[in-house]
Amino acid sequence: MVYQKTEKVKAKLSSKRKKIIEVTREILAENSYRETSIKAIATKAGIATGTFYLYFSNKDVLIDTMVEEMYQELLVEIKKERSKHSDIFDKLEASMQTCIKLFVKEENLAKIFLVKLPGINNAFNKKLAEIERDLIKLTKKDLDDLKGKGFLPEQDTLVSATAFVGTFRQVLISWLKEGEPRDLESAFQTLMQYNMRGLGKKG
Amino acid sequence: MVYQKTEKVKAKLSSKRKKIIEVTREILAENSYRETSIKAIATKAGIATGTFYLYFSNKDVLIDTMVEEMYQELLVEIKKERSKHSDIFDKLEASMQTCIKLFVKEENLAKIFLVKLPGINNAFNKKLAEIERDLIKLTKKDLDDLKGKGFLPEQDTLVSATAFVGTFRQVLISWLKEGEPRDLESAFQTLMQYNMRGLGKKG
DNA sequence: CCAAGAAATGAACTTGAATTCATTTTTAGG
DNA sequence: CCTAAAAATGAATTCAAGTTCATTTCTTGG
Question: Phi, psi at residue B155, to the nearest 5°?
Answer without folding.
Answer: -170, 165
